[in-house]
Design a protein that fits this description.
Elements (H helix, E strand, L loop, with lengths): L2 E7 L3 H12 L3 E8 L4 E5 L2 E7 L9 H7 L2 E4 L9 H6 L10 E7 L10 E2 L10 H20 L3 E6 L1 E3 L5 H7 L4 E2 L8 E3 H13 L6 E4 L7 H12 L6 E2 L7 H6 L5 E2 L2 H6 L9 H12 L1
Parallel strand pairs: 1-2, 1-5, 2-4, 5-6, 6-8, 7-14, 8-12, 9-11, 10-13
Antiparallel strand pairs: 3-4
Length: about 290
C-alpha cells in the first residue's frame, strides 16, 4: 500500500494513533475528519487535513464530496441519544466504488454482565447500560448495510482503553481514583497503540462482515490493577468506597458488568502479537517513558 484516502468520523485518541501508525509506515495519506467544532484546516505530525463540522443537529455539506472520494472510513464516534448519526446521515453516501474498508469501533459493553466468565464474539449480547444498548443497535445497523448493500464493513469491539496520556497512573497522581468494593468484578482493557496496530494490520488483511474483540490477555479487577499501579509509582492506596457511593452514573454502569473478554479471534486472524499483552507491560512502559 503506497497511499490511503481515509475519512475519520471523530478524531479522538484511537483515530489519531491510527493515523500516526500509517505515517510511521511512510504511506501517503489524504485525511479528512469530523469534529463538533467549526470546519477548519488542522495538522497532525506535519500532515494537513480538513476537519468538517458534524454534530447531532447539522453537518458541513462539503464533507459529502470528501466522503465519496474515500477508500477507507473509520467510525469512532459513539451513538448520540441512542442513534448512530453516521448511519442516519450518510448511509446513502457510502455507496461508492472507491470503498475498500469501513471499520466501526464498538465496545465490549454490548456483552453486559456475564458474572466474571469469559465472552467471545459468539457470546450472547445482553447490554445493561444505555451505552451498551446503543452500541449494539449501531453494530446491527452497520452489519445490515454490509449484508444488504454489500459494503465492506468490520466491527471492532474495544475493551477499556488506556493510553500513554490517560491511564491509572496519571489518575492516581491527580488523586482521581477510588477503590470500589465489589467482589468478582473483572474487566478487560487495551492500549491505544495496540488498537492502532491492529487497525493497520486490517488494512491489508480484511474480511467483511466480521466482528473482533480487541482486548489484551489479562482481564482483571479494578482493585488488582490499582494495587499494582500504586506500588509502581509509590503513592498511597486510594480510599475504598461502596458502589452506592459512586457519583458518576457512567462509573456505576461500569460496575454492573463483570466479564473476561477473549481475544483469540483477533490475534489469530490478524497474526498479531500484542505490544502490551497485559497492564503490567503497559503501565511499566508508561512509567518509564511518560511519568
Amino acid at each position: 500500500m503506497k497511499n490511503i484516502n481515509i475519512f475519520c468520523f471523530g478524531f479522538g485518541q484511537i483515530a489519531k494513533n491510527f493515523i500516526k501508525k500509517i505515517q510511521l509506515e511512510n504511506i501517503e495519506i489524504n485525511l479528512s475528519t469530523t469534529s463538533t467544532k467549526d470546519t477548519c484546516i488542522k495538522d497532525i505530525n506535519g500532515l494537513k487535513y480538513e476537519s468538517f463540522s458534524f454534530n447531532s443537529n447539522s453537518f458541513d455539506k462539503n464533507l459529502i464530496k470528501k466522503l465519496n472520494e474515500a477508500d477507507h472510513i473509520l467510525i469512532s464516534i459513539p451513538p448520540i441519544n441512542g442513534i448512530d448519526l453516521v448511519v442516519k446521515n450518510f448511509s446513502k453516501s457510502l455507496n461508492n466504488p472507491n470503498l475498500k474498508w469501513i471499520t466501526y469501533l464498538s465496545a465490549t459493553s454490548i456483552y453486559g454482565d456475564h458474572e466474571g466468565k469469559w465472552v467471545n464474539e459468539e457470546s450472547k449480547a445482553r447490554p445493561t447500560s444505555p451505552n451498551g444498548v446503543a452500541r449494539l443497535s449501531a453494530e446491527k445497523s452497520w452489519l445490515s448495510l454490509e449484508k444488504d448493500k454489500n459494503f465492506p464493513i468490520q466491527v471492532f469491539r474495544l475493551s477499556g482503553i488506556y493510553s500513554n496520556e490517560n491511564n491509572i497512573l496519571t489518575r492516581l497522581k491527580s488523586g482521581n481514583v477510588n477503590l470500589i468494593n465489589k467482589k468478582n468484578h473483572f474487566f478487560s482493557r487495551i492500549h491505544t497503540e495496540d488498537v492502532a496496530n491492529i487497525l493497520f494490520k486490517s488494512l491489508t488483511k480484511f474480511k467483511s462482515g466480521e466482528i473482533y474483540n480487541i482486548s489484551d490477555d489479562k482481564p482483571s479487577s479494578s482493585e488488582e490493577l490499582t494495587t499494582f499501579a500504586v506500588k509502581l509509582i509509590d503513592v498511597d492506596i486510594p480510599k475504598k468506597i461502596e458502589i452506592n457511593e459512586i457519583k458518576s452514573e457512567m462509573l456505576k454502569s461500569f460496575y454492573k458488568d463483570s466479564k473476561k473478554v477473549n481475544n483469540k479471534k483477533m490475534k489469530n486472524f490478524f497474526s498479531y502479537k500484542l505490544k502490551f499483552p497485559t497492564y503490567v507491560e503497559g503501565l511499566n512502559y508508561i512509567k518509564d517513558n511518560f511519568i
